[in-house]
Design brief:
alpha/beta; five-stranded mixed β-sheet
């Protein structure tokens, strides 16, 4: 009998995701014995019979619970996307996963799936600027309100924000539709206490209000939010999961009860990931643990050098936390410090720009989690649209430079930062 492509154990041993990335969810016998999945470049799929075609559509349209039993049309599903979703779910020990054309299409589809007119979103801050903008500028046009609290908030502050959101929703005639978190926050690396948020949500709103969290900075290796009370995990798969700065994609993981309404809206909107990019992500997930481990080790060495430099005012690095509350959250929620951090250059924008313009190995570009080291200036780039007073409140200062360390030689990177700081 052929070995099942869904086997996750050998005897009593549970296999690790890094092992399962090599074949889980794929049967070579269905593709002429091809060791790796082919790219399925087709817009539609032939049905075995008219009756089965009807059954497939009953699942796709939600007329019958349980989803589709087969492949229908590439706006809905496809072999590459389904294999990728099954493997992505393994990292978070999630029931299901969904993949999207970008991180923002995943976030937009998620929010639209759960938010109705007059509802309220309670979210942590800062968020990725496009996420914050979508909530504050786009969803607000349709009567959806929002309340935010700082990422490092104490339980009492979290409870106050939920109470404020509940009152606002009642006044508008809606409900608190979602608690949306980003932890670590972009670009400050401030951590949200997911367990405290979950406890407050349960007490004040009930379990029918989902908690979603953007886990891009630490996922899928260094943080598993579903284990700490989150319901839906959000990824820009462009970052560590893709990890080569050559694709754009997004993903969500969580229980089927949360994924079902999102899948239905994705079917309508067409925000699904294309098969070629899904295939590239399948390849990338085979090495994600190796790449993230190397970049995390490099970041620790680079930050140890930067910490003592006279032209550095401080670091926003999870491997060197000063605040006891943040350290406690890190100890409970995280298994690694990551490789993306903030360095505060003594001075302001001019000094930060000189540092950035002097780099030779590190590339001056937005994004993170790739094989190469990237550096950017959030206040002038990714968060330029954030109002100055909010940037000041969130700690996104003119001397903050965001670094995403890659897999180069750590000593070479230190030499690069040393000569760039000399130019400041």
């Amino acid at each position: 009998m052929a070995k099942s492509s869904k086997d996750t154990t050998i005897g009593n041993r549970q296999l690790k995701p890094s092992t399962l990335m090599m074949g889980y969810g794929y049967d070579p016998a269905l593709s002429e014995g091809s060791l790796k999945p082919p790219i399925f470049l087709t817009s539609t799929f032939a049905f075995p019979s008219a009756a089965e075609g009807k059954r497939f559509f009953e699942g796709i349209t939600g007329k019958r619970p349980g989803g589709s039993d087969g492949l229908v049309y590439s706006r809905f599903n496809g072999p590459n996307q389904q294999i990728l979703e099954e493997r992505l779910a393994l990292w978070d020990v999630a029931e299901e996963a969904l993949v999207f054309s970008s991180g923002m299409s995943a976030i937009a589809t998620l929010l639209l799936a759960f938010c109705n007119q007059n509802d309220v979103i309670v979210h942590s801050g800062p968020l990725y600027a496009a996420t914050e903008g979508f909530i504050a500028k786009t969803l607000s046009r349709f009567g959806i309100g929002y309340v935010d609290f700082p990422a490092g908030a104490e339980p009492a502050e979290i409870e106050a924000a939920l109470a404020k959101g509940k009152d606002l929703a009642a006044a508008q005639g809606g409900k608190v539709a979602m608690v949306y978190l980003e932890s670590p926050a972009n670009p400050t690396n401030a951590l949200v206490d997911i367990e405290a948020v979950s406890a407050a949500r349960d007490a004040m709103l009930g379990a029918d209000c989902p908690i979603a969290i953007d886990n891009t900075f630490l996922g899928p290796l260094w943080q598993h939010p579903l284990a700490h009370g989150a319901d839906i995990v959000v990824y820009s798969l462009t970052k560590y999961a893709g990890g080569h700065s050559d694709l754009v994609a997004g993903g969500l993981t969580g229980a089927k009860r949360w994924m079902d309404p999102i899948r239905m809206l994705r079917n309508t909107m067409g925000t699904i990931l294309d098969p070629n990019t899904a295939w590239m992500l399948l390849r990338s997930l085979e090495t994600v643990e190796l790449r993230m481990t190397r970049s995390g080790e490099n970041a620790a060495k680079v930050c140890a050098y930067l910490k003592g430099h006279p032209k550095v005012d401080g670091l926003g690095y999870l491997g060197d936390i000063d605040d006891p509350r943040q350290q406690d959250i890190y100890n409970r929620h995280c298994t690694g410090a990551g490789s993306t951090f903030s360095v505060f250059i003594k001075g302001g924008e001019a000094e930060s720009f000189r540092f950035l313009d002097s780099l030779k190995i590190a590339k001056l570009a937005v994004s993170l989690g790739g094989t190469e080291t990237l550096a950017s200036h959030p206040a002038a780039m990714t968060h330029l649209s954030v109002p100055p007073e909010r940037k000041a409140m969130l700690g996104i200062t003119d001397n903050l430079v965001r670094i995403s360390v890659g897999i180069e030689d750590a000593d070479d990177l230190i030499a690069d930062f040393e000569q760039a700081l000399a130019a400041v």
